[in-house]
């Protein structure tokens, strides 16, 4: 059961939905500590006061804003909680938009919003059904952890999910990172689309979507615990190199994708522009043959009875 990390309400016009917030994701990464390699003693970060030159405990530590080199303005947690903002106590919905209009780059971590008590059940269901039927998402503002943020509300398996969003000025422009202009043929684009079709999945289930990095770390830890030699990295059959022939690389990629899906990689061939023009030539040839036959027929004399 995930712990609640915030309690407040969703403000939907004049409708208020009391809710609790719990993280919607889990981190299963393996964590490491720092150790002194000579004797494997634990290395810890200790907090020292620069003026008194002594270690201080967590109860003596607070927040502050450095106004100048000599002046620091202390800010308490109580003052942060009592900020004169409507979003400090509520997730305030400000608009509804189609999901396709939201740049995925702006969407961050997700949280489940659960109704707090029986009184919240009906307005919670109202908002959930309104989102489902409208096929839209809500854009909201909220203030947590010392800052105000944008949020996106959507429905997932009957629950309302809040995604943290970045402000527009937090998104960098990719203009300076774009490659120089290049030309692509229609055949290359068609081949890429064929490859995409062969790699299309209905879901993200399967061995391809497992965390093999964590599994490999677990194998190393287990081997060293048992004083065995850790497993070695298997060398790939073919080393990746620079792609010289793009069409050849696309053709080979399609064959590999079909082989992974259990299809015969040699049965189907990549679409070609020239192949599309052949039926037109055959049709024209047929028309010419029909015209010639008509002329021959018209030139014959009718048989006498």
Automatic annotation (TrEMBL):
Superkingdom in the source lineage: Bacteria
Biased composition (Basic residues): 273-305
Start and end residues of each stretch annotated as Disordered: 255-305
CDD domains: KU_like
Domain named Ku: residues: 53-182
Record flagged with keyword DNA-binding: yes
UniProt KW keywords: DNA damage, DNA recombination, DNA repair, DNA-binding
SUPFAM superfamilies attached to this UniProt entry: SPOC domain-like
Residue stretches of biased makeup (Basic and acidic residues): 260-272
InterPro entries with a match to the protein in the record: DNA_bd_Ku70/Ku80, Prok_Ku, SPOC-like_C_dom_sf
Keyword flag Transferase: no
Family affiliation: Belongs to the prokaryotic Ku family.
Quaternary structure annotation from Swiss-Prot or TrEMBL: Homodimer. Interacts with LigD.
Cited function: With LigD forms a non-homologous end joining (NHEJ) DNA repair enzyme, which repairs dsDNA breaks with reduced fidelity. Binds linear dsDNA with 5'- and 3'- overhangs but not closed circular dsDNA nor ssDNA. Recruits and stimulates the ligase activity of LigD.
PANTHER family from the UniProt entry: NON-HOMOLOGOUS END JOINING PROTEIN KU
Name of the featured protein: Non-homologous end joining protein Ku
Organism the protein comes from: Streptomyces venetus
Encoding gene per record: ku
């Amino acid at each position: 059961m995930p712990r609640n990390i915030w309690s407040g309400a969703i403000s939907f016009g004049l409708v208020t939905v009391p809710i609790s917030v719990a993280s919607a994701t889990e981190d299963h990464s393996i964590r490491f500590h720092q150790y002194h390699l000579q004797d494997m003693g634990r290395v810890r970060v200790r907090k020292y006061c620069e003026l008194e030159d002594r270690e201080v405990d967590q109860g003596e530590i607070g927040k502050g804003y450095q106004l100048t080199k000599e002046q620091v303005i202390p800010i308490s947690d109580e003052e942060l909680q009592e900020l004169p903002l409507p979003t400090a106590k509520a997730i305030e919905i400000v608009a509804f938009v189609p999901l396709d209009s939201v740049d995925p780059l702006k969407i961050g971590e997700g949280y489940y919003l659960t109704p707090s008590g029986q009184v919240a059940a009906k307005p919670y269901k109202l908002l959930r059904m309104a989102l489902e039927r409208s096929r839209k998402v809500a854009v909201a503002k909220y203030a947590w952890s010392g800052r105000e943020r944008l949020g996106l509300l959507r429905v997932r398996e009957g629950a309302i999910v809040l995604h943290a969003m970045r402000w527009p000025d937090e998104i960098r422009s990719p203009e300076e990172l774009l490659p120089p202009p290049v030309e692509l043929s229609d055949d290359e684009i068609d081949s890429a689309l064929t490859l995409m079709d062969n790699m299309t999945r209905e879901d993200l289930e399967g061995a391809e979507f497992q965390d093999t990095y964590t599994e490999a770390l677990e194998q190393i830890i287990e081997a060293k615990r048992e004083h065995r030699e850790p497993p070695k990295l298997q060398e790939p059959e073919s080393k990746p190199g620079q792609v010289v022939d793009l069409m050849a690389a696309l053709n080979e990629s399609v064959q590999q994708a079909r082989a992974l899906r259990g299809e015969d990689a040699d049965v189907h061939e990549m679409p070609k522009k020239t192949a599309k023009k052949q039926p037109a030539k055959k049709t024209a040839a047929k028309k010419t043959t029909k015209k010639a036959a008509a002329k021959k027929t018209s030139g014959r004399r009718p048989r006498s009875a």
